From TrEMBL:
Taxonomic superkingdom: Bacteria
Record InterPro entries: DUF779
Pfam family, one: DUF779
Listed name of the protein: Acetaldehyde dehydrogenase
Organism, as annotated: Kroppenstedtia guangzhouensis
């Protein structure tokens, strides 16, 4: 079995990422831990959100690094995340908000077999 990604992205979210990348350049995501929009994936220009030793990188979605705080990851480490998009204005600083859209997370627990083949996380 090949490595199982920790984070995925829908085709609809990819289209929004492409649109944002055209306007803002390279992008990154950080999974919010509860401020403002609850627990939502936040999209920033690459480097505009400072990551550090308290963050882990779960992988990339559509060419964008995806980070989460280490403490939040402890709760979600058994769950595969999928970044999706929906209409509606979130209450955050994420780049898609002016478009009348917001990114959201869909999730599912890994199977026992998948648990043994997960992509390793990287330090922030």
């Amino acid at each position: 079995m090949e490595r199982v990604p920790r984070v995925l992205v829908t085709e609809a979210a990819k289209q929004v990422i492409d649109r944002l990348r055209e306007e803002h350049g390279d992008l990154m995501f950080h999974q919010s831990g509860g401020c403002c929009d609850g627990s939502a994936p936040m999209c920033f220009r690459k480097g505009d959100f400072r990551t550090g030793m308290s963050d882990v990188c779960l992988g990339q979605i559509h060419g964008c690094d995806f980070y989460m705080s280490r403490s939040q990851f402890e709760y979600w480490k058994h769950t595969q995340l999928t970044v999706d998009v929906t209409e509606g204005r979130g209450a955050s600083f994420s780049l898609e908000i002016p478009l009348g859209l917001r990114f959201l997370i869909r999730s599912r627990p890994y199977t026992e077999e998948e648990q043994n083949h997960l992509v390793p996380v990287e330090e922030g």
